[in-house]
Amino acid sequence: MEVSAEAKRIMIVALGKLYSSRTQRGGLRLHRSLLLTLVMKSARDMYHAAQATTGSVASGCEQQHYTAEPHPELQGPAYPATGKPRISPREEVVGPPTGAEDKENLCPTGPAQHSRKRRGKAAVEPDFLPCKKAKLEQGSCPQQLAVNPLLMDYAKCSSELGAPPTPMPLQRAIAAC
Amino acid sequence: MGEDAESPKINHTFLRDYVTEADVISTVEFNQTGDLLATGDKGGRVVIFQRETESKGESEEVGETGDSGEYNVYSTFQSHEPDFDYLKSLEIEEKINKIRWLPQQNAAHFLLSTNDKTIKLWKVSERDKRPEGYNLKDEEGRLKDISTITSLQVPVLKPTDLMVEVRPRRVFSNGHTYHVNSISVNSDGETYLSADDLRINMWHLGITDRSFNIVDIKPANMEDLTEVITAAEFHPHHCHLFVYSSSKGTLRLCDMRASALCDKHTKLFEEPEDPGSRSFFSEIISSVSDVKFSHSGRYLLTRDYLTAKVWDLNMDKGPVETYQVHEYLRSKLCSLYENDCIFDKFECVWNSSDSVIMTGAYNSFFRMFDRETGRGVTLEAWRESSKPRAVLRTRRVYTGGKRRRGDVGVDSLDFTKKILHMAWHPSENIIAIAATNNLYIFQDRVNPETQAQ
After folding, report:
1. Is A125 an interface residue toward B (CB < 8 Å)?
2. B116 chain-A contacts, CB cut-off 8 A
3. In chain B, which residues have their Cβ closer than 8 Å to the Cβ of A31?
4. For residue B148, what are the CA distances in angstroms to A12, B135, B141, B151, B156?
5. Which of A43, A84, B281, B392 has its CA 20 to 30 A from that of B54?
6. pLDDT average, residue stretch B226-253
7. Cβ contacts of residue B158 below 8 Å, gap of 6+?
């Protein structure tokens, strides 16, 4: 249990760092972004492994922390089940974290397939709007997903593992930054 | 740890000792003779220090040979300015990432300095004479009235106050898409390499509009990216060999005679991972932050987050020596990750005879390891505890057992005081340590320290 809590914390911190690195002077640092992504993947894998082993025991208490429903049914307005709109307290964290400034320096996991649109620092496009390229590799998922592109990757990967993923609601990630 | 009376140090540095971000030293390098020492800072400035050669009358050291050993400011210049990439809407920092001196060929000195994108070659020359007695100009340079000239004279060179001129001779731009982390001058004296996260280019010192790409590890799909280049260096004697380190902790030795593009290494140096020590942060702490050839060219010195390793070029299965720099931080990796310290890139250096290696740590501490005995010593670069000419005392981080007076607890370490950059004189025991915005120069008058930790 401790492992999954720590893994979650690490993922949240990594997300926060990746977001804030967009506004860093000097542009996106590829090495740092890569390391953060590796940490996140590592934490995600451990998290899901821990979830899989603890199974139903954990899911009861863990689920209430999540406001999202299982993956294939994720849709824009339904995503934050608490009913709160998906707001971002800071403008700079909205939108794909890395796709914006530099195509070459993209974060290696995921955002590449989403939104090629250049977004400036002040972009306020809300996350609950469907992404244009929300196409997943698993089976049928015709609905467009409102999941942040960064989280898309581990949603994708989780499906490969077979366990139903429980992505963190975005406002938790932002709150932790 | 931490159960002692010492409370965690609250960092008042910002209030007590305001440090301008621009003054933070980002690189330190001696030239080949050690007479000159260059530092680069985050503000894009380069400061060159020169060693005084005249022995001062009041030198207090007995047995001192001619050199007083003091380094004084020789020249200061603005190397790089903040720039902007309009195409990508990105600021380009003016911070000097590396300085490398060229071997001296004439009276002038040359150095290469680089920021994230552009490398510049600077000529540092002295002028201590000026011509006087022009026929058509007067002393201030104004044109004389021709009617007043009655005779001709030959201008003569008269000694004048020493002036140090620094001029940019070459600008090597547009060679890198990613951030330049290393430059290294080749032993052939004509070429140098520059490395960014994914590519290494070779340049000729005289040609600025072309460079030769010798390593390219950029994957066709950036999503497949698994490692980046973190440092690169030419072999000190063999002009066809160079090494580069990666974020995965591997070293690759490349021979430029083998092929034009050295993507395929000649030798891969890799230590198998210890599965028992696997953690969330294994990848981060195994990333090599610096690689240096020994002066002999036989060994490689690498630094990752917790250790410094010596590799034998003839053995690629693993390092021949591993030194724990601050193993007590292994249990603190999570907090170091949260406060970003885990991403710090420490440099490492050899002494002139390759018998001692040195690297930095936190709390203004730096470590020296004697390769023969395997023992390490911790020293401190901190103004308040070292007066000029005072002997550096060794420090200790308390990690258990009997606690001695002066030991510092792990929780009391100041992680904002990091020693990242340093240099060792090429032939003597003189070291230059950069501690944020301060430069410390330590000299050993007797012998290298061999005290136990």
Report:
1. no
2. 26
3. 179, 197, 228, 230, 247, 287
4. 83, 10, 16, 9, 20
5. B392
6. 97
7. B129, B130, B131, B132
Handedness of CA B309, B383, B78, B190 (dihedral sign): negative
Structure confidence by residue, pLDDT tens digits, B61-106:
444 444 567 899 999 999 999 999 998 888 999 999 999 999 999 9
Within B205-287, strands assigned E span 212-216, 229-234, 241-246, 251-255, 267-269
SS3 assignment for B406-426: CCEEHHHCCCCCECCEEEECC
- For A174, the enclosing helix (H) or strand (E) is helix A170-176
Rounded Cα distance between B426 and B193, Å, is: 21
- Split at pLDDT 50, 70, 90, the class of B171 is very high
**Number of alpha carbons in the 13 Å side-chain half-sphere of residue A24:** 17
Q: Do B222 and A32 touch (CB under 8 A)?
A: no
What DSSP string runs through B123-157? Answer: EEEEEEEEEE--SSB-TTSPBPPGGG--S----EE
Report the pLDDT value the prediction gives residue B226, as an integer from 0 to 100. Answer: 95
Please check whether residue A105 touches B, CB under 8 A. Answer: yes
Contact B222 A34 (CB under 8 A): no
Write the residue in B91, B198, B287 that is nearest to A35 by C-beta: B287
Interchain CB contacts (distance < 8 Å): A and B: 81
Minimal CA–CA distance to B166: which of B104, B37, B76?
B76
- The half-sphere exposure of B130 on its side-chain side, counting CA atoms within 13 A, is 9
Q: Which residues of chain B approach chain A closer than 8 Å at the C-beta? A: 85, 88-93, 95, 116, 177-179, 197-198, 221-228, 230, 247, 280-284, 287, 334, 337-338, 340, 343
Q: SS3 for B237?
A: coil
- Looking at residue B81, what is its pLDDT? 96
Q: If DSSP codes are grouped into helix, strand and coil, which group holds residue A49?
A: helix
Longest dimension (CA), chain B: 93
Nearest by CB: B284 against A7, A39, A108: A39
Which residues in chain A show pLDDT less than 70?
Answer: 1, 56-177
Are the C-beta atoms of residues B30 and B349 closer than 8 Å to each other? Answer: no
Q: Give contacts of B177 with chain A, Cβ < 8 Å.
A: 104
Q: Report how far residue B296's alpha carbon sits from residue B32's, in angstroms, rounded to the nearest whole number.
A: 15
H-helix or E-strand spanning residue B200: strand B199-204
Nearest CB neighbour to B91, from listed A26, A29, A34: A26
Residue type at A91 in one-letter notation = E
Dump strand ranges (E) for B11-155.
25-30, 36-41, 45-51, 71-78, 83-85, 90-92, 98-101, 109-114, 119-132
Question: B136 CA to chain A: closest CA distance, Å?
Answer: 52
Rg (chain B; Cα; Å) = 24
Indicate the SS3 state at residue B333. Answer: helix
Q: What is the DSSP letter of B362?
A: B
Chain A: closest CA distance from residue B333 (Å): 11
pLDDT of residue B17: 53
Cα(B49)–Cα(B71) distance, rounded to whole angstroms? 6
Q: What are phi and psi of B240, to 5 degrees?
A: -100, -5
Rounded CA gap, B223 and B112, in Å? Answer: 34
